[in-house]
Amino acid sequence: MTRTKKGVKLIHLLVAQRFGKNRHLHIQYQPACYMSSKSTASPAACPDIQPLSVLEEMKMPFSRALIGNFFQDQPRLGNQFLEDSILQSYLRRHLPPVVLKEASQDLGRFGQRIVDELDTLGRECELSPPHLEHYDAWGRRVDRIITCPAWKKMKEVSAEEGLVAAAYERKFSSWSRLIQIVKLYLYTPSSGYFSCPLAMTDGAAKVIESLGRPDALQDAFRNLTSRDPKRFWTSGQWMTERKGGSDVAYGTETVARAQADGTYKLYGYKWFTSATDSDMTLTLGRVEDAQGQIIPGTKGLSLFYLEVRNAKGQLNGIEVQRLKDKLGTKQVPTAELLLDGVKALRISPEGRGVASISNMLTITRIHNTVAAASAMRRVINLAREYASKRFVFGSLIKDHPLHMQTMARMEVSIFFIMFFIVC
């Protein structure tokens, strides 16, 4: 092949790489005898003229697209209850047979719902974080926190599945809390972090129950523990203020002023309020006496119940200053709030706020532990599934001893962590 013919062929290859999607592109490269302007030779006189179909000639990778032709199969999520042999083994050992049978049926069904529906919803929550609308089109202050449809659907699912209610219905007697925890363990990694408001909702219900379900809180308790999506409430836990930290007594500056009708008005600034779109919350404040004085320290703190919006749907003396720009859990609306005359009900003896809210702190910490363990379990499950699909160095990575040693150590870790939670 002459140098001219090689050059022409190279040009044709470059053109084909640029316009390779045209399946009908046929090009001929010509020998020197035909390419010469002085030549009178016809194509037939040049025996080495060959038709070139670009798509047939070019067999090299990346000829059609820069992304190549390989796509890694993604790991598939299976039924997280039926595939968890350790969890099932524990339940078989500790639950009475009648309870085990009924609970296992419900957990198996829920495990499949996670695969079929909830995991996708959780992903949508992650991709569509909440945002804050301060004003409406006419300049009125509305402080509207807008969440995605998937987040709202998670609230409905939480009610339907009894993710809070199960612990208070006591259908399974003393085993009810354990079964609720198992259900949360399955749900949390696919929840889009709706497990966060559920933790505080559970904690608020526990506080109200520990206070004897006073008449003023009966409706709130029924809403917090309802299986009806139209009635179900979630709760916040507004404790952290600007001084922040674990020293609640030092950090709380919110003032509570008594009203003639027996309620209080709260004035303060809450620095970090998770799940700010909740229906109600429990919070701490310092009661002023008749002279406008407050008691410093822990003894000056009381516990208050408030509803976020009034009967007209307006914020209850609350201004949403901004949503937090967090490193993680971006699905959860977390805000800074100005409390400017919030109507509230004191539900603890005066000065017993920290003691009264302690049940809420205990419950939310249990939820946090479950969330951490369930995330580990899910990561291991996905890694194990991926190991059966990823091919490197001549074999699947599940066949590489070093990789499987790492997986085995992870399995042992989650084994002990799970038993730490449930035992």
What topology, given as strand order, has the largest sheet? Answer: 7-8-12-10-9
Ends distance: 80 Å
**Category by helix and strand content:** alpha+beta
- CATH fold naming of the largest domain: Butyryl-CoA Dehydrogenase, subunit A, domain 2
Unreliable parts = 21-39
Helix content: 40-55%
Number of helical segments with 4 or more residues: 13
The count of DSSP E runs of length 2 or more, i.e. the number of strands, is: 14
CATH class of the largest domain: Mainly Beta
From the 3D coordinates, which CATH architecture of the largest domain would you assign? Beta Barrel
Overall shape: it is: globular
Percent strand: 15-25%
- Radius of gyration (CA) equals 32 Å
Cofactor: FAD
Domain Acyl-CoA oxidase/dehydrogenase middle: 237-342
Domain Adaptive response protein AidB N-terminal: 79-227
Keywords: FAD, Flavoprotein, Oxidoreductase
Summarize the structure in short:
β3 (131-135) and β4 (141-146) form a beta hairpin. This protein has helices at residues 3-18, 32-35, 54-57, 85-94, 97-127, 149-160, 166-169, 176-187, 195-210, 218-224, 248-251, 353-387, 401-422; strands spanning 26-29, 50-53, 131-135, 141-146, 235-238, 240-241, 255-258, 264-273, 280-287, 301-307, 318-323, 335-346, 391-392, 395-396.
Feature tags:
423 residues, alpha+beta, Butyryl-CoA Dehydrogenase, subunit A, domain 2, 3 domains, five-stranded mixed barrel, two-stranded antiparallel sheet, 13 helices, 14 strands, globular
Provide an overview of this structure.
- By secondary structure, this protein is of the alpha+beta class.
- The protein folds into 3 domains: 3-57, no CATH class; 85-366, Butyryl-CoA Dehydrogenase, subunit A, domain 2, CATH 2.40.110; 374-422.
- The protein contains 13 helices and 14 strands.
- The chain has helices at residues 3-18, 32-35, 54-57, 85-94, 97-127, 149-160, 166-169, 176-187, 195-210, 218-224, 248-251, 353-387, 401-422, and strands spanning 26-29, 50-53, 131-135, 141-146, 235-238, 240-241, 255-258, 264-273, 280-287, 301-307, 318-323, 335-346, 391-392, 395-396.
- Helix 5 packs antiparallel against helix 6 and helix 5 packs parallel to helix 8 (176-187).
- The radius of gyration is 32 Å and the shape is globular.
- It starts with a helix and ends with a helix.
- Mean pLDDT is 87; it is low at 21-39.
